[in-house]
Design goal:
It holds the Pfam family Peptidase_S10. Belongs to the peptidase S10 family. With about 500 residues, the protein is of the alpha/beta class. It is built from 19 helices and 14 strands. It folds into 2 domains: about 325 residues, Rossmann fold; about 120 residues, no CATH class.
Length: about 500
């Protein structure tokens, strides 16, 4: 059986012909190749002085199969230093594409994606120990894990400076990181294909950052990044909070899969409030940006749509990031085999004193505990007194003043349609992956959202039939894509809010 996400990735990024024909998308368009000829190098950074650090890591902190790895920081502006962890491909590092991964939050560290999802090593549960990950995405691509905005995770924000409060505050920092990383830190990589992957709240980062890069190119800004960005990969990513709430009724209340998540009374209440939720969502789209209408979508949905499921979490019967039962529910399952299958999330480690989102999966490694060990901090050039905050709670406070709830659908459409512009400056495809048991960014709601995304290929995409994933894969699910391959969506059974870490 083949690993799911690595197969999807190989197909989407243009792997071997047989893989490519079996799923998803064609090879890069002629327009993409034409663009690559026009601009093949990243533009030199405008910053002077000490712009970056770069340290070769051995195999101790993140054990791998011997591929090279580096950590360091890039100074994107005064007092703003973004941390990166770079791993070369296990296959052909001189020619394989580069995937830049960002976790969401806002303010979450991308080391979560490194150690618990797609990285070359993963953490073992219950012990502070890492081992090589045979299913890492760097089997066929080099990986960059980026902690941003400045102050998130292992990145640094100088004392006295203000935390970011919106993606627009940090879009230029992201672009400057790309410029310095590819022109100065790893100049030998600057002509390779680049794919931007973003998870969860990364559904805001990815579209806004790429839109900013497109705008910089259109105006031929001195800071424009001209590297060969070929795709955006959104993993359990929110682009508008209306969709995830809309999908909660189907996920929690449609019992064809015998999930039995919510009772009839709770489901009746959700159904009663869905029309108003959708009306608020339409108002948010009309107002767009940081508006009271968009704040109202979250407030209403959290109060009337998600309340019953949150009560299940508080009672220890469900988990915040995967709607499978916790261990307290396993006794009621039909067989020991079913119990072993479901026994993946145990609520005992959920600490709700900070936030509903702080419940982490105890069957994955504890990245916070691992990175806060003195020997690890020394290897990463961090002061012994430095305490890693991987969830970025400080950013939730600043972003929740308005930017947190706004949609990014217009920016996403801009990215999708730039290839057709008369003086096109990019040709970027979109891959969406979603876990079918994700209670935060629900698959039914995300499907609903992309069917309604207003772009030139909407009609074709909306009527496309969902197809089962190939039987040779180690997981089940379904997919559909436009004939151009410009938008592809993969829905994965058994996975929650972190698809690559839930189903390998």
């Amino acid at each position: 059986m083949r690993a799911l996400t690595s197969f999807i990735l190989a197909a989407f990024l243009g792997g071997a012909g047989a893989i490519q024909r079996s799923l998803l998308v064609p090879a890069a368009s002629s327009n993409q190749h034409q663009l690559a000829k026009i601009r093949t190098t990243a533009r030199k950074s405008t910053l002077q002085g000490d712009r970056f650090t770069k340290k070769k890591q051995d195999n101790s902190t993140c054990p791998t199969y011997g591929e090279s790895q580096w950590t360091g920081t890039v100074n994107v502006r005064d007092g703003h230093d973004l941390f990166y962890w770079f791993f070369e491909s296990r296959n052909d590092p001189e020619n394989d594409p580069i995937i830049l991964w960002m976790n969401g939050g806002p303010g979450a560290s991308s080391t979560l994606g490194l150690f618990d999802e797609i990285g070359p090593c993963w953490l073992l549960p219950e012990v502070d120990k890492a081992e090589p990950n045979p299913w890492s995405w760097n089997n066929n691509a080099s990986l960059v894990f980026l902690d941003q905005p400045a102050g998130a995770g292992l990145s640094h924000l100088a004392d006295g400076l203000t935390l970011a409060a919106r993606e627009e505050d940090t879009a230029q920092d992201f672009q400057q990181f790309l410029n310095i990383f590819f022109s100065d830190v790893f100049p030998a990589k600057q002509n390779l294909s680049i794919h931007i992957a973003a998870e969860s709240y990364g559904g805001h980062y990815g579209p806004v950052y790429l839109h900013h890069i497109l705008e910089s190119r259109r105006f031929d800004s001195k800071t424009a990044f001209w590297g060969n960005i070929e795709s955006l990969i959104l993993v359990d990513a929110v682009i508008d909070f209306t969709g995830p709430f809309v999908g909660m009724y189907e996920l929690f209340c449609d019992d064809r899969q015998k999930k039995g998540i919510l009772n009839a009374t709770a489901c009746e209440q959700i159904a009663l409030h869905l029309p108003e939720l959708q009306r608020l969502g339409e108002s948010c789209q009309l107002a767009y940006g940081e508006s009271a209408e968009c704040n109202a979508v979250w407030d209403y949905g959290d109060r009337y749509i998600n309340a019953a499921y949150k009560a299940e979490v508080a009672a220890g019967r469900r988990h915040t990031q995967n709607s499978k039962p916790t261990s307290k529910e396993v006794d009621s399952l039909a067989s020991e085999e079913d119990a072993n299958l479901i026994y993946v999330l145990v609520n005992k480690k959920c600490d709700l004193k900070y936030s509903y989102l702080d419940c982490m999966d105890p069957c994955k490694g504890n990245v916070t505990s691992y990175l806060n060990q003195e020997w690890v901090k020394k290897a990463l050039d961090k002061d012994p007194s430095f305490q890693v905050d991987l969830m970025g709670r400080r950013f939730f406070a600043t972003f929740s003043q308005g930017a947190l709830w706004k949609p990014t659908t217009r920016e996403l459409v801009d990215v999708l349609e730039e290839h057709a512009a008369e003086d096109s400056v990019a040709d970027i495809k979109l891959l969406v992956m979603n876990g079918n048991l994700d209670p935060l960014v629900t698959t039914p709601g995300t499907k609903w959202q992309y069917d309604r995304l207003k772009w030139t290929e909407q009609a074709e995409y909306a009527i496309k039939k969902w197809q089962p994933l190939p039987a040779a894969l180690a997981a089940t699910g379904e997919w559909k894509a436009t004939s151009s391959g410009r938008l592809a969506f993969v829905a994965v059974d058994g996975a929650g809010h972190t698809v690559p870490g839930d189903v390998r």
